[in-house]
From TrEMBL:
This is 3-phosphoshikimate 1-carboxyvinyltransferase. Pathway: Metabolic intermediate biosynthesis; chorismate biosynthesis; chorismate from D-erythrose 4-phosphate and phosphoenolpyruvate: step 6/7. Keywords: Amino-acid biosynthesis, Aromatic amino acid biosynthesis, Cytoplasm, Transferase. It is found in: Cytoplasm. It catalyses: 3-phosphoshikimate + phosphoenolpyruvate = 5-O-(1-carboxyvinyl)-3-phosphoshikimate + phosphate. Phosphoenolpyruvate binds at residues 22, 94, 122, 169, 346, 388. It comes from the Bacteria. 3-phosphoshikimate binds at residues 22-23, 27, 167, 169, 315, 342. CDD domains: EPSP_synthase (cd01556). It comes from Priestia koreensis. Catalyzes the transfer of the enolpyruvyl moiety of phosphoenolpyruvate (PEP) to the 5-hydroxyl of shikimate-3-phosphate (S3P) to produce enolpyruvyl shikimate-3-phosphate and inorganic phosphate.
Amino acid sequence: MTKVLSKATSSLNGVIQVPGDKSISHRSVMFGAIARGKTTVTGFLPGDDCLSTIACFRELGVTITQNGDQVEVEGKGLDGLKEARNVLDVGNSGTTMRLILGILANTPFHSTLIGDSSIAKRPMQRVTKPLQSMGAKIDGREEGNFTPLSIRGGQTKGIHYQSPVASAQVKSSILLAGLQAEGTTSVTEPEKSRDHTERMLQAFGIEVKVDGLTASLEGGQTLKGTHIEVPGDISSAAFFLVAGAIVPGSRIELKKVGMNPTRTGIIDVLQNMGASITFANVNEDAVEPYADIIIEASQLKGTEVSGDLIPRLIDEIPIIALAATQAEGDTVIKDAAELKVKETNRIDTVVNELTALGVKIEATEDGMIIRGKSTLTGGKVSSHGDHRIGMMLAVASCLAEGDVEIENGEAVTVSYPNFYEHLASLQR
Ligand SMILES: O=C(O)C1=C[C@@H](OP(=O)(O)O)[C@@H](O)[C@H](O)C1
Ligand SMILES: C=C(OP(=O)(O)O)C(=O)O
């Protein structure tokens, strides 16, 4: 589907409840599935990626009822999972693939995993290698790096893993395998990645130790079903934070957005750029803190985004690049080579699609340089099947002189099924 969007005829004004956090929604189903007893979830994200997670665990014999953002998972423990009759299809979701591999490292049966054409290009050795070293039998294309993958789990042994990348998917996969492994399992990262797994495992009754950049747990612990309240996804809110900041005269209120400090890099960057952001109804005591965020348009200035800030905003870089096009001065994004192994190579797709809209932007080895004060033209662009690129281009259309035609615009349903309706609602 080609989505054709025209320049906003007014400022953007209104109140939005962004859908549930994708990372937390995945984990609520996965941890519920391997827990003993029922888990109830509210605020679940019914986006394609999280629906893939539900489908995989149903294939593994778990009863899951999902009605919009309400989910119930009938957990029977890790040994309640059954060998699937079909392949497990993770669709477009890297999180599903990498975390499920950690869970299946301990199941004494065979599973085959596939995904879409984007997943087929994403490196899996970052989890299959350490899981193999724990004792899981995994094979796949190019020595277990790419789908289709097969895994036969069994009794694993704990490891102390020094991860070469700051990746919550790697950390989570190994910790999940460690739950049933003999002895202690620990993961040390070069910078801190999102800590939803550590927080949620504790809510399921697991003892997880966190010491600086190392997270560890003892094998042989059992998860107990619980209730999970999923806050709004700050990665989804990011599109409206930037839209509100750059479309003159705008004021947007975003309700109950997750404020986990490992995810709030976008707020820090926008504040550095001079954005006007205020908070209300702050709840810092929840397992996952949240707040309402109010953004008002203001003149932004260029900035540098680098170092340990990168893992705190990795999925927001496409929309940060768009914000930078409207800033005074240049913006430099570096230390972000991980962008190359997302749904698309997000250095290339951001640079190519924004160039097509008239922006002066250059790719670098590990990021990009964006010249400020660009006039956005209209044009034919593509999401390349990447939800975050689709939403960034839709926000660009609010300022573009001509129509923006987004090929494969439906990709947004991966993380934000009602994104276009929400964007349109701000223009009435
Ligand atoms: O653990 C998670 O839920 C995620 C971790 C990040 O990936 P990496 O672990 O590859 O950095 C992020 O980009 C992805 O959208 C979700
Ligand atoms: C990278 C992303 O997700 P995943 O790795 O789960 O496909 C994303 O949502 O931007």
